[in-house]
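PROTOCOL LOG
Step 1. Enter all chains and additional molecules of the complex.
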Amino acid sequence: MTRPGMHTLTHGRGLLFGGDYNPEQWPEHVWTEDVELMKAAGVNLVTVGVFSWARIEPEPGARDFGWLDRVLDLLGDAGIAVDLATPTASPPPWLGHRWSQTLPVDESGHRLWYGARNQFCPSSPVYRERALAIVTDLADRYAGHPALALWHVGNEYGQICHCDDSAAAFRAWLRERYGDLDALNDAWGTTFWSQRYSDWEEVITPRRAPYMINPTQRLDFWRFGSDALLAHYRAERDILRARTPDTPVTTNFMGLFKPVDYWSWAPEEDLVANDYYPDPADPLAPARSALTHDLMRGLGGGRPWMLMEQATTAVNWRPHNLPKPVGQLRLESLQALARGADGLCYFQWRASRFGAERFHAAMLPHAGPDTRLHAEVRAHGAELRRLAPVAGTRVAAKVAMVHDWASWWALEERGQPSDRLDSTGQLLSYYRPLWERGVAVDLVPPSADLSGYALVVVPNLYLISDADAASLTAYTRAGGVLVVGPFSGVVDPLAHVRTGRFPAPLREVLGASGEEWLPAPEGRPVSCRWADGTGFAAHTWTELVRSDGAEPVAAFTEGDLAGHPAVLRHRSGDGVAWYVATMPEHDALAELTTRMLADAGVTGALPELPPGVEAVRRGPVLFLLNHGDGDAHVPIPAPAEDLLTGSTAEGRITLAPRAVAALRPLDTL
Ligand code: GAL
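Step 2. Run joint prediction.
Step 3. Record the structure below.
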């Protein structure tokens, strides 16, 4: 049976626009005003009930749905669809008070109390029973309600718990994975530091210990943590699916969020949804956002996804919260749309008067509808109707970038040669030059079918399985272009070092191998030169590597490494493999990117792109977004209609700072 998905929501509605709506914080007369203002703003979907457990179940076993009935009726009558949340992200105080074992415990053994949110242990049988009971009643009550369009399970899953219930669940997970204790002892290498387990009951979560904890125990705990949350998500989802088989089910992701392996989660959802809050103070935010949006598209296998939460201006959870300049709200939202989102929603509709988020931006600020900010929100809602033809269309990419959670977890442990090689930092370094050229990139897991890509970039795969290494090798030999960044192929899935010259499982395809990892002194550039003698700088990391057939493209020029290769390129079968044994500065990585793209025969969306302008093609529409501070003049290939303005553009287009064009070539009209 085909599952419902994003298409179920956009069918007849067009692009989705709206936000979290928390009517329980307001008297009922405000609800009527809310709905009127939502209609005026073009809102067609709101997320309701995320934090309503205590309101629905004021005391154990009680149910108060009356208020929620009225909210859903009101919204339904106004034609506003509801993304109804299961309220299980924030249990009421009575749960923790009566059953303190439902509260999470940190790695030091401290219980975390109620008074905020997220205070639950995903492995607690009591939490699970209570959560599933309320989900069942919620689903029974609203199955068939005309306003119900989407289910939103929990909120931003990410809890990590070290309580006794979690330890028991961890043991059960390990038994399933390893079978017996001998296998566990082998896998964790417990002969090291006298860590051998003699009884399953001795095995615990990696709680705070006097010194560095067993890295494989930690890695398995990351895996277990993601799986434990997923098990709970699935339990809720199955209740919803059984009662409303035609209503899609999702939960909200958090971008490149470390505790949860979204590759394993995404197939369990009917559509991928993300919460994303770029920092206005971050100069790399536009590229970082693009990367995150591409990840969401990748998680959904290329299908349209949904931006479930973004902020209209400043958030209130950073120490110092910069606002978005005028026009930024629109620019950021359209960026997500250009990169595959069919839904553009906010946290939240009306700014709260009380509680921890009362200084967080909203679609409707405290000052009311007669405000600059709300006018921007309305204008954005209105223009989305003009972009309706984009709904359902896809972004086609010839470049794939590999990201893996297990490798991320394993890389960023204590006891590594350096803690400066962060997984997402490497990802962004390799992504940025591609983004600057308007080259579309799909984020993929290491196990993906790579055959459709001309270029596959592996910024870092510290941990790699034999099968995934074989797949990268086969892809290259069959004519692909592969790029591998430093400190890759180092450990196997148990985080045991692969012995021999590195990167052991990729040596052959790379035609190169190394023997020493050499972190570089901090703050001092590593000097290198290209084969033609031009110099460039790298930083943080170097390796002693030799060519085993690859052509040295760049070399180190100083110290013990002087004359040794820094970058190598190898013809392997019908393809080409690159190995980068250091961390080149951005300009040098941009130069490398040019060469790799040439090998792969891949070009960007436009031949010429001024700095700061993002170009991405979604279906037939070319989106141009000016993230720079000045006017940008962009040559365009063919006469086109700008869907945002209805005007025709030809030759070149001028974009003011934060301006966006959505160009549909006239010959496709
Ligand atoms: C998200 C969350 C929302 C709200 C928002 C504030 O983490 O899902 O409930 O807290 O952040 O930015």
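Step 4. Note key features.
Residues 155-156, 275, 277, 309, 315, 347, 357, 360 surround beta-D-galactopyranose (CB under 6 Å).
The radius of gyration is 26 Å.
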